Amino acid sequence: MTTIFQKPNNNSLAFNLLLVVGGVLLVNALIFGFGWSTNSSEQIVGSPSFAPPGWIVGAVWTLWFICMAVARWLVIKSESNHGRKARILIDILIISCLLYPFYSLAIGSVIGGLVGNFFTVILTSFVFYRVYDVSKVAAFLIFPIIPWVIFASIITLIESGFL
d(Cα 143, Cα 130) in Å, to the nearest integer? Predict the structure, then answer.
């Protein structure tokens, strides 16, 4: 069964997308089920006017996960050692992004969220750099996560009164 995710054909693309979107749905169920979607207990000054509503944030992250699944599928086509390493790095990025709510929202800490954002930007930058040599298209499917997380960090800093 796991080999179907490693084959570069249309079925594997569908399975990669299904796996990632299924993970997103599961994590979102946990976020709303445990009430992590509400603001943390720390002082919130106020959201800036350019802060998107929660449903847009969820939709954008779903799009980023779909992009990561397609990027993973693209690097599978490269049967080189670099391609296998790039796939593993994308797997790590996907898992890290799926786990993000557990080390930010679950603990209810703005600082925890900012540390998570910093880690996500560094990891995504590293994955982008390593994937670029294997597939430029795959790398640029991953790249938008970087400015999005920086944007989210700026909003968090403003909401917390740090900016």
Answer: 12
